[in-house]
Amino acid sequence: MGRRDARVTGEPPPHRLSIWVVSDGRAGIENQALGLAEAVQRLTPAEITVKQIRWRPLFDRLPSALKTPAMLASAPLAAPWPDLWIATGRATLPLSTRIKRWSGGKTFVVQTQDPRWANDRYDLIVAPAHDDLSGDNVFEITGSPHRVTPERIAQAAPAFADRIAPLPHPRVAVLIGGRSKAFDLTQAHAADLADRIAAAVHASGGSLLLTFSRRTPDAAKAVMTERLSGLPGWIWDGAGDNPLFGFLHFADHILVTEDSANMAAEAASTGKPVHILPMVALRSGDKFARLHDDLAERGATRPFDGTLDGWTYAPLAETQRAARAVLEAMGAR
Q1: Residue 232: is the preceding peptide bond cis (ω within 30°)?
Q2: How many helices (H) and strands (E) does the chain have?
Q3: How far apart are alpha carbons 231 and 235 in whole angstroms?
Q4: Crossing angle of helices 261-268 and 27-43, rounded to 10°
Q5: Measured CA distances, 283 to 250, 269, 290 (Å)
Q6: How far is 317 from 73, CA to CA, in rounded Å?
Q7: Is the alpha carbon torsion for 190, 191, 197, 198 positive or negative?
Q8: Residue 232, CA atoms < 13 Å, CB-side half-sphere
């Protein structure tokens, strides 16, 4: 028999979970909450609404405890409140700690990353295991939630096939980060990385698929572009649609700088060999060392040694695992 029609049987239509994705709008931050929301949506009917939070400049640096909704520069939030609130980043904390009261207890509150404030006031914290966070409401995952899935990168691939498919194998996707509190990418170090990458691609007879992050210093970007532009491939200059998902789909190997938990987790979700590129350390890298140890133990990553040897492992599906935990926690409350 076909599926029964609720209009014929008189049964109410199935409930669609309402989800708000809340962040300051920065892509790397928003994609964590959005990736988790999309993973929940793959498990149950749901409608996702994206909310971007901005505070007036005068109040932006105030401690979270002192901020009130009247200080928002973005549109005020209003009922009907969602069933599920998934938020990421410091800007959301003053609202994440209030939404349950505003909704009369209806809204289930999920915060990703370590909030570092009022951790007992969220229903669930989806935290990177390398943050070493503990608590009854903490669910640990390897890396951070993200939007990369095999289905999503396969869907994106045709738009870039004309440019990438003719390139010789092995195709080497290179994801370059940049300066952060823990790491730097100096011009000299970028030049050295570029020479090592060029040697490996040249020796293999393959091609290059290179993308930079918003944090990549201009000097590092310039020297890497200069030294790698002679290879077959594509160095994305930021113009047009972002080809990242196409790169991940068509790549045989993925090289990722060690400074980004997001990039490493996304790359490890493909099941393809992920080679970790070193950066210039600015301070103790204990957190990142824990992350990379975890990824290595899972068989996903190895330090880049100048060669392009391949290996296999089970693709990481940590965002989907977190989504199941969210739904289980919502059902248990």
Answers
A1: no
A2: 12, 14
A3: 10
A4: 30
A5: 35, 28, 15
A6: 36
A7: positive
A8: 17
Amino acid at 208: L
C-alpha to C-alpha distance for 220 and 271, rounded to whole angstroms: 29
Tokens of 182: 């823990």
From first to last of its 333 residues, what are the pLDDT tens digits of the chain? Answer: 344 444 555 665 678 999 999 999 998 899 999 999 999 999 999 999 999 999 999 999 999 999 999 999 999 999 999 999 999 999 999 999 999 999 999 999 999 999 999 999 999 999 999 888 999 999 999 999 999 999 999 999 999 999 999 999 999 999 999 998 889 999 999 999 999 999 999 999 999 999 999 899 999 999 999 999 999 999 999 999 999 999 999 999 999 999 988 899 999 999 999 999 999 998 876 778 889 999 999 999 999 999 999 999 999 999 999 999 999 999 976
Residue 322 CA to residue 318 CA, distance in Å, equals: 6
Tokens coding 326: 């969210």
* CA neighbours closer than 13 Å in the CB half-sphere of residue 56: 11
Residue given tokens 């990177």 in the structure block: 128
Q: Which two tokens stand for residue 239?
A: 């113009």
